[in-house]
Design goal:
A hairpin with a 3-residue loop joins strand 2 and strand 3. The chain has a seven-stranded antiparallel β-sheet with strand order 1-22-19-24-17-14-13, with no helix packed on it. A seven-stranded antiparallel β-sheet has the order 2-3-4-11-6-9-12, with no helix packed on it. It has one domain: Jelly Rolls (Sandwich), CATH 2.60.120.10. The chain is built from one helix and 26 strands. The relative contact order is 0.21. With 302 residues, it is mostly beta strands.
Length: 302
């Protein structure tokens, strides 16, 4: 007998400035929701031409970037470079140290490049691993269609409707499902028991929960679930005027302390201080940062 997950809280992701001219709606990593293990931050970003995230370091976490529209280039001090397009994902493990730039494509019509970036904590034993990238192209992502075609789920990571994702992309176990529900559609999506989980609403609104605990979640809101239970129940009413789209994300809880200073995520204040020293003096993973400048970062419009 499956047990529906209760809703812990629902809140709006307020838009704010970030990086160089970018706009983000941050939900995880705000006073509303901090260190929702293993998740450190969730940004719904909009980057117009002339804005972006020029050269900056990371240590101790993984970033997962899911591009919804446009394109984003990346480049790092190890010589890795590439572009993700709409529907593609990039999984970057910072490990012991990376310095990179993420810059939007200069769309001829001036339109913004829009996507999600999720920061996931690394298990303490892997925080000093070598950095790596793994891309997942839109064409590689399997999909499940349910409820007579009223529900379409891109199975980025995890399992839905009997469809498994193609590969493990992050060191920390995480499920990511991109869910679209037409009016009248109902879904009971299993999730691993005991994992933290949330749904971030990209388009329209959906009704989460069951019985007397049903809650309508609108666009740009994050719906956070209690860890008890093994299924998330959601529907879009028959009389709704539009479909709903949200990402449903779950992750294995890491029982470890989180000490974060900007792009450095470690387990003790001493480790954070060491990260700052290592970055400043180009040591212990940051050797290649000395004198490095990305080519794409030079495109910033002053």
């Amino acid at each position: 007998m499956s047990v529906p997950r209760a809703i812990r809280k629902v809140f709006l992701a307020v838009e704010q400035a970030e990086g160089a001219g970018a706009r983000v709606r941050r939900s995880i990593g705000t006073p509303q929701l901090r260190n929702f293990s293993p998740f450190l931050m969730l940004d719904h970003f909009s980057i117009k031409p002339g804005a972006g995230f020029p050269d900056h370091p990371h240590r101790g976490q993984e970033t997962i970037t899911y591009l919804l529209t446009g394109g984003v280039d990346h480049e790092d001090f190890a010589g890795n470079a590439g572009t993700i397009e709409a529907g593609d994902l990039q999984f970057m493990t910072a490990g012991r140290g990376i310095m990179h730039a993420e810059m939007p494509r200069q769309n001829p019509d001036g339109s913004a490049n829009v996507g999600l970036q999720l920061w996931v904590d690394l298990p303490a034993a892997l925080k000093s691993c070598e950095p790596r990238y793994r891309d997942l192209k839109a064409a590689e992502i399997p999909a499940a269609d349910l409820d007579g075609g009223k529900i379409h789920i891109k199975v980025i990571s995890g399992q839905a409707g009997g469809v498994d994702s193609v590969k493990d992309l992050a060191y920390t176990p995480v499920w990511i499902l991109d869910v679209q529900i037409k009016p009248g559609g109902k879904l009971a999506q299993p999730l691993p028991r005991g994992w933290n989980a949330f749904a971030y609403q990209l388009e329209g609104s959906a009704v989460f929960g069951s019985g007397d605990a049903k809650t309508t979640v609108g666009q740009y809101h994050n719906c956070v679930f209690e860890p008890d239970g093994d299924v998330v129940v959601v529907e879009v009413p028959e009389n709704a005027t539009e479909s709903a789209r949200f990402v449903l994300i779950a992750g294995q809880i890491l029982n470890q302390k989180v000490v974060q200073y900007g792009p450095f995520v470690l387990s003790t204040p001493e480790e954070v201080r060491q990260a700052l020293i290592d970055y400043q003096f180009h040591m212990n993973g940051f050797e290649r940062a000395e004198g490095w400048q990305s080519e794409i970062g030079k495109s910033m419009v002053n």
